[in-house]
Amino acid sequence: MSQLWSWLLRPKASSNEATRASSGHFVAGEACLVELLANTAELVSFYDRNLRLTHHSANLKNIGGHAPATGIPVWEVYPSFLDSQLRAELDRVLRGAPPTNVELGDSQSQVQGSVFVFGAADGLAIIERTTERRKPSSVEMQERITLLHQASHDALTGLENRRRFSESLQRTLSGIDGSKEKAALLQIDLDDFKAVNDTLGHGAGDTLLQLVADRIRNELQEGEFAYRYAGDEFAVIQSGKEQPAEAERLAASLVDTLKAPFLINGIPVFIGASIGIAFGLEHGTESEQLMKAADIALYAAKRDGRGCARIFNRSMLLLLEQRENLRRSLRAALAHGELYLEYQPIFRPPSSVVGFEALLRWHHPEFGIIPPSVFIPIAEADGIMDHIGRWVLEQACRQARTWPSWMTVAVNLSPAQFLSGALTDTVAQVIDAVGIRADRLELEITETVLLEKTVDNLDTLNTLSVLGIRISLDDFGTRYSSLSYLKNFPFDTLKIDQYFIDDLETDQKSQAIVRSIIGLAHGLGMSVTAEGVETPGQASWLIEEDCDYLQGYLLGQPMAGEVTRDFIRRSAPTPVGTTGGRNRAM
């Protein structure tokens, strides 16, 4: 037996002599290992728990016939281990099984024969026994390397792929000593990626994914490996680190680097990333469990405003379960009469009520009032917003029939209602069925609608406009606020978001922004509605600046439909005429 073999199989320091004699674990120092590997004739290699090369003898070759690079996976030295059954032998040894002989290859394999596999410090070692390495032709070698890379890497970004991710995660979890170690899984989801794809095209989207992958790579340290999981989702497995500090450090650096602008075809593109973090074995002993925990944490990061990282905890699971309960309840809410509308008045200064905005509400029999910000995204994700939206439209139009004939009703449209392709037919059918004039209906959309299938949505809005229905752009100023929207889409009204109204009396910047929006809208023949008016000072400033319509708690809170007629009588409105066409009368 050679000096290297004698040294590798020396007993591990332990009080149990029987265990020491059979353990076969490498326990010598780094310097001694390097010296032996430099001078041995044996073909030996060492791998960590992720089966990546850490040390090797000087005469070992990779599949290309060159000295292997530290960090490559075991299958780039021994391609036969791409086979799941052979790789299972490595996993067994990593979990503490006795040393074993593994037969390699078939007639097509470059390396044939057998290797001896045994446990080593923080991983395993492989010594070739009776192997034969056939020297491949240059074409054969290139084909082998290409196939090997394609099987394990994402073609677009060059990161390891989902298959490799699943294998690595399970292997990492299998090798953890639960009493001492933690492995971290970071699930990364890009924010606003779909908007880039839709506005700049799929080519720009692909370029963006490549740039994202490069930035992720640049943030990685030893023991951290990145994968493209799916679409615009990435993952990082982190092992051998102090947790949770190291996972939090990496997540913060990833959020920061992905927040910086990307330059694509000369255009600065801004996205961001939300990250969910889970630890094995604390949050899962199997890969599926840990991935679910990380996904739940990722959902929490999205819910908390995106562009941040969250670590999984049990309360997140409870919130998710509650959300699922709400999802199931929402499907029956309409049939059970739990959904209803309230109406908030809209005023033309100084005191004439000219219409109402219909606001959807849900009274859950167990949980009470559920905010729209909670249940509307659920309805959109569950595919029932189109059904609910039709009901809202019909109820609002029927209520408007009880008001004076010059009053309007405003109804909010969800982006999900544009996806069905039947929105214009639905609106036309409701108007005909209820018997209300088209110019008494105003449909409110947000800029999110404009980012989804822009050409189709432009056609939809133009058709609605031709029908005589008024279109307003809600929450103007809080998102992209692109002037191209105002040029290309047929808006009658801009609604200034409450964010700019809150400090209107004291903040000069808010005053300048609101003044500019009013001037811009009037220059384009549009009217302006200020939302969230809550003080006399705000109302006075807006009236002085020629804002067309005011809406807010100062003027009137949302109310039940049966109350609106009494409110109209008390408000003594002044008729302002019909509202058809592109003008500043509502």
Automatic annotation (TrEMBL):
Domain of life: Bacteria
SUPFAM superfamilies with a match to the protein in the record: EAL domain-like, Nucleotide cyclase
All residue ranges annotated as the EAL domain in the record: 323-572
All residue ranges annotated as the GGDEF domain in the record: 181-314
Cited InterPro entries: Biofilm_reg_signaling, EAL_dom, EAL_sf, GGDEF_dom, Nucleotide_cyclase, Rev_trsase/Diguanyl_cyclase
Name under which the protein is recorded: Diguanylate cyclase/phosphodiesterase
Species assigned in the record: Phyllobacterium bourgognense
